[in-house]
Specification:
CATH superfamily of the largest domain: CDP-glycerol glycerophosphotransferase, N-terminal domain
Helix content: 25-40%
CATH architecture of the largest domain: 3-Layer(aba) Sandwich
Radius of gyration: 24 Å
Shape: elongated
Oligomer: single chain
Number of domains: 3
Structural class: alpha/beta
Length: about 350
């Protein structure tokens, strides 16, 4: 059994019964000897033999992945990826895109993709999405479900990664791959290294910063919208100047190029069912790290008085409420259906900016 062989699925099918029996045996042996392996690794570390301790650790990790594959466990696709990923897999013609952890087709990755689709149509484009069937993407891009075998294959093969948020640390960014991080906002609050205390479930301040640093160290380039942001990104993300591209967010081009295109703006308003005779206010607050319900999910309490706003402005205005992508709770707008509109799930915030008067 060769875990580095790329055609691992075909090999599994050919020797299925034997391999399952072997995996079950290995599972028993691993459980039996797990304490022994831990003791060996601990002793090596105590004697400062980090080289051999690392080898023991990697051996245990490899066995765990092999077992996941052989027993066809839920995370077997990730294990196949970790066993088979290598520089030789990279295809210079493949580019993978992702926005907000696969939530949708949006933001700067969307606009970079559409530009490249127009001027460089011959690349192999891949979009990572949580719900690929619900996302409409123009052009020839392949849609893959986040966490699937095709997802791992895309990240193993792509010569370039384009994302606007952090990607999982178990994705191995190899030396012959380029990771372009577009980020997704202007840092008007403290981020990452600049946060004094991190209030998030399942982590500590030091662990959060350590993992964030591991992520930013993989970024080959970070797009900055302006000088103000560049200064903060250097500190918050441990970034040096050559890796920061202060070129403006690609998602903002449409604010200039289509600002006077009334037909385009009217089409967006029609899609949102907005009245043409009223002005539009958009309220788009960010998340607060101390208002969490579980890891990566946050509650939001509306800080504005909708009743008062409606009484004062309802005749002439509508308000769009745009929550941060980490917010997990839906807003209750009962009684204000003709005044307040929840646009949190609308993919393109730039289009919302275009239709907003305030």
């Amino acid at each position: 059994f060769d875990p580095t062989h790329y055609d691992i699925k075909a090999r599994y099918e050919a020797h299925k019964d034997t391999l399952v029996e072997l995996a079950q045996y290995l599972n028993v042996q691993l459980v039996k000897h797990q304490k022994l392996i831990n003791i060996i690794e601990t002793v090596l570390l105590m004697n400062q033999d980090t080289e051999n301790a690392f080898k023991v650790n990697q051996f245990r990790k490899t066995l765990r992945h092999v077992k996941n594959v052989l027993l066809r466990r839920k995370n077997k696709d990730r294990s196949i990826y970790e066993l088979t990923d290598k520089e030789e897999n990279v295809n210079q013609g493949t580019i993978v895109f992702e926005a907000f952890g696969g939530k949708n087709y949006s933001d700067s990755p969307k606009y970079i993709y559409e530009y490249m689709q127009k001027y460089y149509p011959n690349y192999n484009y891949v979009w990572s999405l949580k719900k690929p069937d619900k996302s409409v993407i123009p052009g020839n891009a392949k849609k893959v479900k986040r966490g699937s075998a095709e997802y791992y294959q895309a990240y193993s093969e792509a010569s370039h990664w384009v994302s606007n948020a952090r990607t999982p640390l178990y994705l191995n960014k190899k030396d012959n791959q380029t990771y372009i991080q577009t980020w997704h906002g202007t840092p008007l609050k403290r981020l990452a290294n600049d946060m004094k205390v991190v209030r998030m479930p399942g982590t500590t301040t030091s662990r959060y910063k350590r993992n964030f640093n591991r992520e930013t160290s993989r970024w080959d380039y970070l797009i900055s919208p302006n000088r103000y942001s560049s200064e903060i990104f250097r500190s918050a993300f441990w970034m040096d100047e050559p890796r920061i591209l202060e070129i403006g967010y690609p998602r903002n081009d449409v604010l200039v190029n289509r600002a006077n295109d009334q037909d385009y703006i009217d089409e967006i308003k029609t899609n949102l069912n907005l009245p043409s005779d009223k002005k539009v206010i958009m309220y788009a607050p960010t998340w607060r790290d101390d208002e969490f319900v579980s890891k990566g999910k946050y509650l939001f309490e509306l800080k504005i008085d909708l009743e008062n706003l409606y009484n004062e402005l309802g005749d002439d205005y509508v308000i769009l409420l745009r929550m941060h992508y980490l917010i997990s709770n839906a807003l209750d707008l009962t009684g204000y259906e003709n005044f307040a509109v929840d646009v949190s799930n609308y993919n393109d915030v730039s289009e919302l900016f275009l239709v907003s008067d305030c």
